[in-house]
Specification:
Layout: E1 2-10, H1 16-26, H2 29-32, E2 36-43, E3 54-60, H3 63-71, H4 73-83, E4 87-96
Helix pairs in contact: 1-4
């Protein structure tokens, strides 16, 4: 198994509606990209100051399946339309499970 984790910080102008729409759009990806084995997204619980504001955790059977997801046109379009306009910074890591 292979895991991808992405953490997002939003621009100050980002609205709650934009954040919610991002979550809705991201949750469509497992239906569009068959290589995704498990997929979780959501806002930070707000328990600790300084945390990133949103997390994406995706699991794949292999590195090759992750690469399909990373480069998939539906995923790339979603990033361009819903992520890039509202994200101030991003951190990511991929690792073997």
């Amino acid at each position: 198994m292979f895991r991808h984790v992405s953490l997002l910080m939003f621009t100050p102008q980002t609205t709650q509606e934009q954040q919610q729409e991002l979550g809705r759009q991201l949750r469509t990806l497992p239906g569009a990209i068959g290589e995704i084995r498990d997929y979780h997204v959501g806002p930070d619980a707000g328990l600790n100051p300084g945390n990133y504001q949103f997390a994406i955790v995706a699991d794949f059977a292999s590195v090759d399946d992750y690469l399909v997801y990373r480069d998939h046109p539906v995923h790339r379009e979603l990033i361009e339309k819903y992520v890039q306009p509202i994200v101030a910074s991003r951190a990511a890591v991929q690792y073997e499970l």
